[in-house]
Every structure is written in C-alpha cells, then in structure tokens.
Amino acid sequence: MPSFFSPYAGWNLEQALTERQPQLEKTKALRARAPLSRKAIAALCVASFVAGLLLSGRVALMPADASGDGGAAKEGVRVSGGCGGNKRKLGENHPKDLLNEVSRTHQAIESLDKAVSTLEMELAVERARSGDGGGTAVASKPPQKAFVVIGINTAFTSRKRRDSLRDTWVPRGEKLRKLEMEKGIVIRFVIGHSGAPGGGALDRALDSEEAETRDFLRLDHAEGYHELSSKTRIYFTTAVATWDADFYVKVDDDVHLNLGMLSSRLAKHRTRPRVYVGCMKSGPVLSQKGVKYHEPEYWKFGDEGNKYFRHATGQIYAISKDLAAYISINQPILHRFANEDVSLGAWLIGLEVEHVDDRSMCCATPPDCEWKKRAGNVCVASFDWSCSGVCKSVDRMRHIHKACGEGEGAVWNVAI
Question: Which residues form the DUF4094 domain (predicted)?
C-alpha cells in the first residue's frame, strides 16, 4: 500500500470494499437514472476542490505523534503534485499559505475584471463612434491619436478674446499643426451655433473666422449661458469621437495657460485610470433667486446653507480618457445642474475617480504668478477669482503672458 496511507495501517481493506459495494451499486443506479447537468458537474468540481483545500489544511495540522507510524510522520510524507511535479511536505502546509493563495487569486480576478471593463468601455466608445450604440455617430473617420485635447470654451461675441489668446499662448497656423503632429497637443476653440433658422449673421461671421484660422471645434449645440452643462457634455462626446487622446481639457477663453506646464503635469498621471485634475473646491449651494450661480435644484443638496461636493473649478480642468469616454457613452442620461462645473463633478462623484487637487491650475494674475515663476514654480493657469477669469482679459493677456509665461520653447522640451 502507498506510504500516503501509512497512518491508517490498521485499516481492513477487504472489509472496506465489502461495505462500499452496496453504495457503489446505488451510485451506478442513480447515474443511470439522472445524469448530471454541466452546471451541476462544475459546481461539484468546485465544491470538491474547496473540500480538498480544507482537508489538506487539516491534515497539515495533525500532530506528528498522532500516527501509528512515527517514523514516516516525523520525517514528513512527500506528495507529488498533479502538475509540474512540485513536491511539498505535508507538515509544511499552513493556513497562511491558503490565505496567500486566495489573496493572489483575488488580485488576479480584480486585474482581469479591470481589463474586461476597459475592453467593454473601448468597445462601447467604438460603437458610439460608428453609430451602433443607439446614438448618432459624431465622426465618420477613425479618431486621430493625441496626448491631450484642449477645448477653449468661447462665445460668438468673444472674437477679441480669441485673438488675445492667439497673440499669446495659442499657436497659429502651421505652428498649431506642428504642435499636434509632433507633440500630440490639440487646441481648439469650442463653440456651437446661434440657433437662428438657416444660420444667422453670428454663424456666418464665425464661418469666416474659422476659414481664416482653422482652430475651431464646432458642436451640434445651440449656444446660451444656461446651456453650458449641455455644451460640456457635447464637447467631450465630440472630442472623444474625433481624437483618441489620453486627456481632455476644458478651459475658458479668459484664462492664461502655459502649455508646457500643463503637459508636464498631465504626463505624470498618464498611467493612472480615471483621473480628474483641477483646483478642487466646495462652494455654497445658492438657493436665493436672482443671484449669480443660483442653483434651482438646491434642495437636492440637503438643507439650506449646505455646500457642494468637491469638484474642480470651471475655469480649467482635465479628465482622463476613460472618464471622457464614460461621458460620451452616457451623455443622454447625465443630469445637468445650473452650473457647468457642478454638473461635471456630479457625473463623476459616484465613480471610482481619483480627484487631483492641483493648485498650480488656479494661480492669481501678477504679481502672484510672476513671483512663483521667479521662484521656479511656473503656474499651469492664471486668472482672477473675482472675475471668474482674467479681469479685462483682452487688455491684460499680453502683459500676463510676458510676466508669467513659460517661454515659447518650453512646450517642445516636455517629455510626453
């Protein structure tokens, strides 16, 4: 008899076989009458495996002197594994080993689950792009690869603001194309249409400007101050369909931005999933009618006097690819609050998202950003809180760029 059964040397084999004969016959009869289904067989295999693990743990914990064959027990009986010929002493088995195996298995399952979720998200995005996901296709050609898409939120009456940015931190013409091709940094002014039947004077003026500058992303959206949350949803949906980028940024057209610093900051988060970057705040929910930033649905945030959940300030923020894809896929059912930055925060608050509070994205205008630059801490973005942007930005943007700008060559030296 094999050495594995040596602790039970007193067992009467013939008697055991005699006693088991009726059971074997009964088992055969049951098998003949009701064959097991595949699910039942799978469940039985899993139960047997678990019972085997538990039994192995118990055998390992048996004291050495409990066996009648003291020599074999003291020396430890070696058992060959079914795969690979691995050998292990029974006396070396320990519950911690089983716990480690369970932990490693759990980690492997979590890793597989994340991989499957990523694939499902990518598949859903592709369906949305091709129009197979129940929505309307936004782009007919495959999205262009990019590192970051920077959408500058603008309005029909903001031509002078746009020109002030083109004269400072937004490249023009071939420089803009070169930045896209060589660094993967896409910059577009984001705007919809006026809503006038057949296109009004505002739409025609914008068409003329677009033909000249070629730096717009036109949305299927009717412009309006109280429609900013809708515009944000449509911007991310359109951007995801047009560019396959690692990050998507929204910035207002009265904010000064250093492209090199922004790219450098975002590159640090490139390997992290579901990242939401900006200056996080939690302002009061304003229930009074007639005041700026009034929230008609204030009651949803609890009692009067409560504050909003943490979210990035609306002047500038960035979200990673998978979050932009989430908004693109679910945009028809994403609720819109009065304030656009609150809406974005609400869309992400219930997800597994890493909120990155980056204070270099909300520096004040000179002398604040100028002092930080001299100290070697160049700001990503600068604006005035009192104006929710740069006060008198058309007149001051050039001065701010000179005082707080990183220099034209900075963006080309960033490792992306």
Answer: 37-128
From CA 83, how far away is CA 35, in angstroms rounded?
Answer: 29
CA 45 vs CA 39, 41, 101, 354: distances in Å: 10, 6, 18, 40
Say if CB 396 and CB 245 are below 8 A apart.
no
The residue-averaged pLDDT of 399-406 equals 98
Closest CA to 129 of 139, 119, 120: 139
Angle at 261 between CA 249 and CA 247, to 5 degrees: 25
Prediction pTM value: 0.70
Residue 320's alpha-carbon distances to 112, 152, 248, 253, in angstroms, are 21, 17, 6, 21
Q: Give residue-wise pLDDT tens across range 189-218.
A: 999 999 887 778 999 999 999 999 999 999
Is the backbone of residue 198 left (phi > 0), alpha (psi -120 to 50) or beta?
Answer: left
What CA–CA distance (Å, rounded) separates 353 from 275? 6
Tell me the C-alpha distance between 325 and 331, whole Å. Answer: 10
Where on the phi/psi map is residue 184: left (φ > 0), alpha (ψ -120 to 50), or beta? left
Q: What residue type is assigned to position 81 of the chain?
A: G
Tell me what the mean pLDDT of segment 394-412 comes to.
Answer: 96
SS3 157: coil
* Secondary structure (3-state) at 170: coil
Q: How far apart are CA 312 and CA 355, in angstroms?
A: 9
Tell me the DSSP string of 17-81: HHHHHHHHHHHHHHHHHSPPPHHHHHHHHHHHHHHHHHHHHHHHTS-GGGSS-HHHHHH--EEE-
Tokens of 46: 């899993």
| Of 22 and 76, more confident | 22
Q: How far apart are CA 307 and CA 285, in angstroms?
A: 5
Residue 278 has, within 13 A of its CA and on its CB side, a CA count of 25
- Tell me which H or E stretch contains 116: helix 95-130
